[in-house]
Amino acid sequence: MYKKKCFYNQSLKNLNTFAIDVKAKQIVFVKTINNLIKISKKCKLYNIPYIILGEASNILFLKNYIGVVIFNRIKGIQITEQKNSWLIHVFSGEKWHNLVKLTLNLGIFGLENLALIPGRIGSAAIQNIGAYGLEFKDICEYVEILSLKNYKTIKIQKKFCQFSYRNSIFKSKYNHKYAVIKVGIKISKNWKPIIFSSLNNYIKKKNITAYQIFNIICQIRKNKLPDPKKTGNAGSFFKNPIVTKKKSQQLLSLYKNIPNCPQKNGLVKISAGWLIENYQFHNIQIGDASIYQKQKLILINKKNATSQDIITLARIIHSCILKKFHISLEPEIDFIGSFGKIYSSKFFNLKT
């Protein structure tokens, strides 16, 4: 069906950071929008399901995928200088961390807090990635998507993207039969460092530079997060739960050192990693799936874990946290079954 860079029944083990050994009917790497359209049309013609991925760094394959897995490698970066800012137009197949490094090298400062986050640009918009006091929504100008129904492009301005914590309109209304193809990122020339509370122990200088923040964050992430090239993982498995102020006060009255962060809407974000760590799971392991000791929010594939091993471990954690703290942890990663994405509510009792 496809002649270039197409493999039949090839394992996806080396193409997903969880290193789950599942297969797809076909695997295709696309480098242009026209190629993406062409493959989408052929899949429609032969009634073959397909899914578009970037780095597959925030997913868990549950079973062999019966259709075509398309890996987005559409690249290109254009930088426009404005009076008070920089406007960066980036195609969705670019690696996020490479963009952070490029802007730093060009003397454009503002993305350094998001250093070393895995994945591609398209996923950054869909997921509204964030770390150390900065989220994608804070620097987004627009997101351009391609309809895989009529193959027209739609440019969506930031205010209509419905960004929230690890969420966006691209996970709902524009999820099925749409593909993110480009984003616009706006960075002010008036750079001010963002020193998030968890960086206070690392940053002592008053005149800190963007380069120093970048290096510090890279070192922190390397020290506390497993390298997916060595240990299978998809980063944080669960989101940090956001609870009511009343619930947070109840928790703080019982656990005074629980990390928390008030939100603009009056709610409070609680550290999921702290909840898991303070439940004190004792070397719990299901098959080759276990909790990463340096960062308890990460579940790892030690060697040959199956997706069922990962799910079983996650459900045990979810159940225990719910029972002790009365908080329902919500998975941050996406689940992909034989025909496509599966809602996490199928596996977890997601109480609000």
UniProtKB/TrEMBL annotation:
Record-linked InterPro entries: FAD-bd_PCMH (IPR016166), FAD-bd_PCMH-like_sf (IPR036318), FAD-bd_PCMH_sub1 (IPR016167), FAD-bd_PCMH_sub2 (IPR016169), MurB (IPR003170), MurB_C (IPR011601), MurB_C_sf (IPR036635), Oxid_FAD_bind_N (IPR006094)
Entry keyword set: Cell cycle, Cell division, Cell shape, Cell wall biogenesis/degradation, Cytoplasm, FAD, Flavoprotein, NADP, Oxidoreductase, Peptidoglycan synthesis
One GO cellular component, as annotated: cytosol
Pfam families associated with the record: FAD_binding_4 (PF01565), MurB_C (PF02873)
Top-rank taxon: Bacteria
Catalyzed reactions: UDP-N-acetyl-alpha-D-muramate + NADP(+) = UDP-N-acetyl-3-O-(1-carboxyvinyl)-alpha-D-glucosamine + NADPH + H(+)
GO molecular function annotation: FAD binding; UDP-N-acetylmuramate dehydrogenase activity
Entry-linked SUPFAM superfamilies: FAD-binding/transporter-associated domain-like, Uridine diphospho-N-Acetylenolpyruvylglucosamine reductase, MurB, C-terminal domain
Domain FAD-binding PCMH-type stretches: 20-190
Known EC number: 1.3.1.98
Annotated compartments: Cytoplasm
Active site residues according to the UniProt entry: R166, S236, E332
Leader sequence segment: none
Cofactor(s) for this UniProt protein: FAD
Family, per entry: Belongs to the MurB family.
Purpose of the protein: Cell wall formation.
Name under which the protein is recorded: UDP-N-acetylenolpyruvoylglucosamine reductase
